[in-house]
Design a protein that fits this description.
Chain B: GO terms for molecular function: iron-sulfur cluster binding; oxidoreductase activity. Chain B: It comes from Desulforamulus putei DSM 12395. Chain B: This is Sulfide dehydrogenase (Flavoprotein) subunit SudA. The complex is a heterodimer of chains A (283) and B (468). Chain A is α/β, with parallel strands linked by helices. Helix content of chain A is 29%, strand content 30%. Chain A has helices at residues 22-27, 68-74, 110-122, 142-148, 167-178, 190-203, 236-239, 250-257, 261-270, and strands spanning 2-11, 14-20, 33-37, 45-48, 51-53, 58-64, 81-82, 84-89, 100-106, 126-133, 151-156, 183-187, 207-210, 226-229, 232-235, 242-244. Chain A is globular. Chain A starts with a strand and ends in a 13-residue tail after the last helix. Chain B is of the alpha/beta class. Chain B has helices spanning 17-20, 33-40, 50-53, 61-69, 73-83, 87-93, 100-103, 115-127, 150-161, 178-181, 190-202, 219-224, 256-264, 291-302, 323-332, 400-403, 434-437, 442-461; strands at 142-146, 165-169, 206-208, 230-233, 239-240, 253-255, 283-287, 307-311, 335-337, 340-347, 353-366, 372-376, 382-385, 388-391, 395-396, 429-431. In chain B, β10 and β11 (353-366) form a beta hairpin. Chain B is globular. The chains are: A alpha/beta (283), B alpha/beta (468). Chain A binds chain B through residues 23-24, 26-27, 37, 41-44, 68-69, 72, 83-89, 216-217, 219-224, 226-228, 233, 238, 252, 255-256, 258-260, 263-264, 266-267, 270-276, and chain B through 171-173, 181, 209-212, 215-217, 238-240, 242, 244, 248-249, 251, 254-255, 257-258, 261-262, 266-267, 271-277, 279, 350-351, 398-400.
């Protein structure tokens, strides 16, 4: 069992847990993910690492309650424990001195963006953060992001905080005004990452996205997380989760993310999820 | 000796095919004591037992069967366990027709002795009894085993018996490897696997689950920082192969690994009691003809599919699956499309599979494998309407560990290179099972695990007493 050392509710139905897993914390790097199971009947839920504390031996995860499994996870409190917790999985972010890097975070995507931005800054890049959410009450970690970004631009879809607009609106304005950055990295819902990739393609800016596909084992064993990148099938779990956003077949990913929609509904109605680790319920 | 031999094996009671095709309970129910003794009577107890040479772990077959004949079941178990840590598992999943039973002298004229069935009987008999565990004095040496499948478990059993301190690292949340995620409940009940693993723990073997070597620690860290004196790699063949056909990423196309892992390890067949879902559909095509294909097809039937097809490019004679699995699949209503090869997947606008385009094949001259090579018949394409396709054409080695260990030699296919003693290119590191040979059988992996255990033991003993 892996103990929840602290719980913060960051926004309605969005929680931050610090989970005690010293061996994972010792090796975790920005961009990697973990898989957890809440209990004996639980699904294996993949979540990108939001932070790690090697001294305390903890991994921070942030998730939105959406489906049965994440709702079940959200019911736990500090002092409770999850049944299983494995990682770090996937390839860490490629961090180097690129020059100017724009980190685009959509919704809960701000959590996995945070440690990558921190590493990018430490590597000597000029880091620009763009974070967006549907509404003011869904904005979190703004202060933390400020610490790891030289510039931070915030936007809300409904204009309830700072300004109205999508992250792509802010990104386009920024590029028009400040010129092309050397790298863009986008993490958030698939349609948002697709929109960012489409935009940066126009400008010819290298863009990485982090995929959160349906998975089972997370170690390259099952192939549930297949994605077409540049015409070739790759596994998100072991080849990713980060890929060149201009090469990812987002249409296919969107279709694949809906694979267990019917089961998810069935489970929610009866009290069992069904999303299989992807899309909606695992934020 | 004019002894009348009953020409056929005593049949093992089975669940009725109509009934079992709808449940996940075990198909074969096992011998009673009476049946076991009667079957044991068929054994000639040959002076030069050929059966034993067919066994990858060298079980003393006539010796244990003679003890069954005398109803000394505990002693029979002790004989088997000298060389096989998992008799209840092997009695169920070994391809005996290609191993021990192939060489059985009785089998020359009649059906061979039901060695597998007897092993299973003894394994089950002893399972729930408190066993005395024979162990040597602790040597002080620590061995890490990566992977808790058949190779790792067999290796751990021998090393623990010889007094070494053994820790098994398992990537998944439950130990057992393919015995847990791959082979279905109806063929190998999971309580039996866990019970056999419990017995290993009683021998002092430690098992750490959720531990991916290569991610939480490199091999060098295990050897240099965490104090292990040797490592055995039994990481198996866990990476599914696909056919690289158009449409393979449509929703509804599964690897057999995913389909079986969802059902077996994640218990998706109990959804929504279990949280993990599985798509079954009405019509299912399984691509391939091995044991994994049979397992996937029979699982799909049990999950409620109306029609399940095995699509295989060669003919019935070339099916690589165990004979018993093929017969069971047929009895349960799985349909076989022989000399048929998939060419592409067809989907609808929402990205769901609607059909599998196939081409008819004919057999030509024998190929490198000695089997007649299937050749497509031009213009014979047809579409098999299916909503689920399960690709069961084989698995390769998992690259997670080798990727982080550049000084570990691998071959073109990514398999770890090891000599016949299990020794790899890296000092103190041994390997065996599917990660070395490519996907094979449970018992061959166990055999390789035992060979490596012997090599590790000799390697450690050559160092002299452990210094602290």
């Amino acid at each position: 069992m892996y103990q929840i050392m602290s719980k913060k509710t960051l926004a309605p139905a969005i929680h931050e847990y610090e989970i005690l897993a010293p061996k994972v914390a010792k090796k975790a790097k920005a961009g990697q993910f973990i898989i957890l199971r809440v209990d004996e009947n639980g699904e294996r839920i993949p979540l990108t690492i939001a932070d790690y504390n090697r001294e305390a031996g903890t991994i921070t995860i942030v998730f939105a309650e959406a489906g049965y499994s994440t709702k079940k996870l959200g019911k736990l409190n500090a002092g409770d424990a999850v049944q299983d917790f494995v990682g770090p999985l996937g390839v860490p972010s490629h961090v180097d001195k690129f020059g100017k890097v724009v980190m685009v975070a959509g919704g809960v995507g701000v959590a996995p963006v945070f440690p990558i931005a921190r590493e990018m800054k430490a590597a000597g890049n000029h880091v620009v953060g763009i974070m967006g959410a549907r509404s003011k009450n869904l904005i979190f970690w703004e202060e933390r992001m400020k610490e790891v970004c030289h510039e931070l631009l915030v936007t809300t879809d409904d204009g309830s905080y700072v300004r109205k607009g999508f992250v792509t609106d802010v990104l386009r304005e920024y590029i028009e005004k400040e010129g092309k950055p050397d790298l863009v990295m986008a993490i958030g819902p698939l349609p948002m990452m697709r929109a960012v990739a489409n935009l940066t393609k126009e400008y010819g800016i290298k863009t990485m996205v982090s995929l959160n596909s349906i998975m089972v084992d997370g170690t390259g064993m099952c192939g549930a997380c297949r994605v077409t990148v540049g015409g070739e099938t790759r596994f998100v779990c072991v080849d990713g989760p980060e890929f060149d956003g201009h090469l990812v077949d987002f249409e296919e990913q969107l279709m694949r993310s809906r694979k267990y929609k019917a089961e998810e509904q069935h489970a929610l109605n009866r009290g069992g999820c069904g999303c299989g680790g992807g899309g909606k319920c695992h934020g | 000796m004019a002894k009348q031999i009953i020409p056929k094996k005593h049949p093992m009671p089975h669940q009725d095919p109509q009934v079992r095709a709808k449940n996940f309970d075990e198909v074969a129910l096992g011998y009673t004591e009476e049946l076991a003794v009667a079957e044991a009577e068929r054994c000639l107890n040959c002076k030069k037992p050929l059966c034993k040479q067919g066994c990858p772990v060298g079980v003393d077959i006539p010796e244990f069967i003679a003890l069954v004949k005398e109803r000394k079941f505990d002693e029979a178990a002790r004989v088997i366990k000298r060389t096989n840590a998992l008799p209840a598992v092997c009695g169920r999943v070994c391809p005996q027709e290609n191993q021990c039973e192939k060489f059985c002298v009785v089998g020359k004229k009649h059906e061979p002795v039901g060695i597998g069935r007897l092993e299973r009987f003894v394994g089950d008999y002893i399972m729930n009894k408190e066993e005395e565990i024979e162990k040597s004095e602790p040597t002080g040496y620590k061995v890490a085993i990566v992977g808790s499948g058949p190779a790792g478990l067999a290796c751990a059993a021998d090393l623990a018996r010889w007094g070494h301190s053994v820790t098994i690292f398992e990537a998944l949340h439950t130990p057992g490897g393919v015995l847990m995620y791959g082979i279905p409940e109806f063929r190998l009940p999971k309580r039996i696997v866990q019970k056999e693993i419990e017995n290993l723990k009683k021998m002092g073997v430690e098992i750490e689950t959720n531990a991916i070597i290569g991610q939480i620690a490199s091999l060098d860290e295990l050897l240099n920082e965490e104090g292990y004196d040797a490592v055995f790699l039994g990481t198996g063949a866990g990476t599914p192969y696909f056919m690289n056909l158009p449409g393979e990423n449509l929703n509804g196309v599964y690897s057999a690994n995913e389909f079986l892992t969802r059902s077996n390890l994640m218990k998706a067949y109990r959804f929504p009691v279990s949280d993990t879902p599985i798509k079954v559909g009405k019509k299912v095509a399984v691509l391939g003809g091995g044991n994994v294909a049979m397992d996937a097809a029979r699982t799909a039937l049990r999950l409620g599919a109306e029609e399940v097809y095995i699509v295989y490019r060669r003919s019935r004679a070339e099916l690589p699956a165990r004979l018993e699995e093929i017969e069971h699949a047929e009895e349960e209503g799985v349909k076989f499309l022989f000399l048929t090869n998939p060419t592409r997947y067809i989907g609808n606008e929402e990205g769901w599979l609607t059909g599998l385009e196939c081409i008819k094949m004919e057999l030509g001259e024998p190929d490198a494998s000695g089997r007649r090579k299937p050749i497509p018949i031009a213009g014979s394409e047809f579409v098999l309407p299916v909503d689920i396709a399960i690709v069961a054409i084989g698995q390769g080695p998992n690259p997670l560990l080798t990727k982080t260990t550049p000084d570990l030699e691998t071959n073109k296919r990514g398999n770890i290179v090891a000599d016949e003693t299990g020794k790899t290119s890296k000092e103190g590191v041994y390997a065996g099972g599917d990660v070395v040979t490519g996907a094979a059988t449970v018992i061959k992996a166990m055999g390789a695990g035992r060979v490596a255990a012997r090599s590790i033991h000799e390697y450690l003993m050559a160092k002299g007493p452990k210094k602290n």
